[in-house]
Design brief:
single chain; 438 residues; Rossmann fold; N-(1-d-carboxylethyl)-l-norvaline Dehydrogenase, domain 2; 3 domains; 6-stranded parallel sheet; 17 helices; 43% helix
């Protein structure tokens, strides 16, 4: 079976590589020639555990190819996945410009029966827009080529994307005919041998499923953050509360970890997009709007604690920050709470030292010389008035607190992820500030 994946961003690259791993012949297409050259040279432009070695193996076995030429790339492909970016527009709706451009190109090239699949996160109705764009190009060419549409939203967690794709909890596919369902079932069969389901549904339902899932997860995060803030006020401990409610089978413990707000490439833009979609159709998602508002507040929680401690004067304070990516096991700094905090601290005149195991290169593009990039976590704390933990990388969980105490100017720890034991830290003479911790 031959397929094509248009777009070699996070979703497209993982999708194409994992399909190649199952024995499918995959061509990944991107108009960024530098990125394609990089991939053909064996270098991977994103940090994702397990991906680089898998790409190398499948390229060597001639199951995975990379090209900037869409016409050549989709030749003989039974299925074409559209996996280009849908960034938020100025009005918070998903920007479909790149999706429609790809659809037009597909329509100007295909000659045989093809299934065109939207893998990008898109609002309800996008598949119909893609269908019209392709058909318009076919009509211009007076081509009789037949194609069908499908929607196949991704549910990949950055840092665990390869595992998520190879061992999915469920696969959601929107179709409008049985022939398309059979083709997609054949393509995905190697990934559902663990008895997890392929959920076939209408295309509109598949399109909204991704947004609804991310909005639900964002809701849980914002909810536990608000309860943590209440614990701060009342003198309770959110860790006890979280375990108390998470042990209820109706609630569960997943996504009930308080912190500095959600970020990344999906939650912020998808929450905005589903709010905008509802508004455009005359309906207000009041709960989801409240989630977004709560998250905006949460991104400032550590900053406000710092202002209070330092009497509203952060000028020339040296702040050591551990973690730049929005979550562990990724170099993605999009909508990162750490970057947000750094920008606020810089405006207050603070001097910032940072360390992250994977996201330093990406952060340098954004922050430049405005901060000091340390090559190990302890160098980021040299002479620091305070340390801030913003991303819970594994190597940050059991640091040498005695060493930290000896090199820091001020014994202050702001734990933005609640990974440290306040009692242990206080015994060493530190002042500890977490999220909803006693």
């Amino acid at each position: 079976m031959k397929i094509a994946v248009v777009g070699t961003g996070y979703v497209g690259l993982v999708t194409g590589t994992c399909f190649a791993e199952s024995g499918v012949t995959v061509t990944c297409i991107d108009n960024d020639k530098n990125k394609i050259k990089q991939l053909n040279d064996g270098s991977v432009p994103i940090y994702e555990p397990g991906l680089e070695s898998m790409i190398r193996i499948n390229v060597e076995k001639k199951r995975l190819f990379f090209t900037p030429d869409l016409k050549d790339g989709i030749k003989e492909a039974e299925v074409i996945f559209i996996a280009v970016g849908t960034p938020p527009g100025e009005d918070d709706s998903a920007d479909l410009k790149h999706v429609i451009e790809v659809a037009k190109e597909i329509g100007s090239v295909i000659t045989n029966h093809t299934v065109v699949v939207t893998k990008s996160t898109v609002p309800v109705g996008t598949s119909e827009k893609i269908r019209k764009a392709i058909q318009n190009q076919l009509d211009k060419r007076k081509s009789k080529a037949i194609f069908d549409m499908a929607s196949n939203p991704e549910f990949l967690k950055e840092g665990a994307a390869v595992d998520d794709f190879l061992k999915p909890e469920r696969i959601v596919i929107g179709i409008d005919n049985e022939k398309t369902a059979e083709i997609m079932k054949r393509l995905y069969m190697p990934f559902v041998l663990n008895n997890h389901p392929i959920l076939f549904m209408d295309i509109a339902s598949a399109e909204i499923t991704k947004y609804a899932a991310n909005a639900m997860l964002a809701t849980r995060i914002s909810f536990i953050n608000e309860i943590a803030n209440l614990c701060d006020i009342l003198g309770a401990d959110i860790n006890h509360v979280r375990k108390g409610i998470g042990s209820d089978s109706r609630i569960g413990s997943k996504f009930l970890y308080p912190g500095t707000g959600y970020g990344g490439s999906c939650f912020p833009k998808d929450v905005k997009a589903i709010i905008k979609t509802a508004h455009d159709h005359g309906y207000e998602l009041n709960v989801v709007r409240a989630v977004e508002k709560a998250n905006d507040f949460q991104r400032n929680v550590i900053f406000n604690k710092m202002l209070k401690l330092f009497n509203n004067n952060l000028k020339n304070k040296i702040i050591g920050i551990w973690g730049l990516s929005f979550k562990p096991k990724t170099d993605d700094i999009r909508e990162s709470s750490s970057i947000y905090l750094i920008e606020k601290l810089l405006k207050e005149g603070a001097k910032i030292k940072v360390y992250d195991p994977a996201a330093m290169a990406e952060a340098k593009k954004l922050l430049g010389k405005r901060v000091t990039f340390a090559n190990d976590p302890y160098k980021a704390l040299q002479g620091a008035d305070a340390m801030v933990l913003m991303t819970e990388w594994s190597e940050f969980h059991l640091p040498d607190f005695r060493k930290m105490a000896s090199i820091m100017k001020g014994k202050v720890i702001f734990d933005g992820r609640n990974i440290y034991d306040p009692a242990e830290i206080k015994k060493l003479g530190f002042r500890y500030f977490g999220i909803g911790r006693r």
